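job 3f2a | input accepted
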Amino acid sequence: MRIRITGIALLITCFAFMHGCTDDEGNKRGVNLFSLQDDKDFGAQVSAEIENDSVNFPILDSASYPDAYAHLHRITDTLLNTGKVQYKDEFVWQMRIIQNDSVLNAFCTPGGYIYVYTGLIKFLDSEDELAGVMGHEIAHADERHSTEALTKQYGTDVLFAVMFGNDSGAVANVAKGMLNLSYSRGNESEADMRSVDYLYPTQYDARGAAGFFEKLDGQGGLPEFLSTHPNPDNRIEDIKSYWEDKGGKVGEKFEDRYKEFKKSLP
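job 3f2a | predicted structure (266 res):
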């Protein structure tokens, strides 16, 4: 990857203030070594690695399953077009379905490359629930949580190797680790709230993410999604409380339409 002066300046600034960065409430924030352009460039590299790794990421062919992708694009385009996504025009927002019914998960790379597993789609009961999850993943990219988490998980040595292009295996290792990329509780809560923000202006019930977590609560053990997306106390209640603060508008679940989505999958 070609490094720009802005990216280097950001690195120097972050190292200088690594122990002093806080949010508006005084809580210490993670360090993000990436510029916005770095997010886009890095995400493109990671996405290329994923696309070429059919063993670990068996991506469903969009030409063979156009109806499935039409459903997914309808959902995500609805959220992206609300005017609430700040990098809607800057990021690529590429959606891919990974064919693995045993994995109940979705993940997002920097720059807006989002992957959702068939296992997650088939697990859910209504379109608003998947829209809630997609809003959550969009938020991770839009709030730039992905590169903040990468900085924390892989450290500066690996990221420097990727950014300066002097380690051919670094991007591949990061790509394989995207599914297990862990976010902070603060980032998870923020993504939950942004999901409500994205869904609220649409016809969807903006509590879709809460419905998803309610269904997860009924599962035995720890689902894959919560192994990388920590479950803060009162997460469902926080989503519903935020929805009520926005006015409590009751939207649609689109259960019948979602059944057609699931039927379009292999």
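job 3f2a | The mean pLDDT is 83.
job 3f2a | closed
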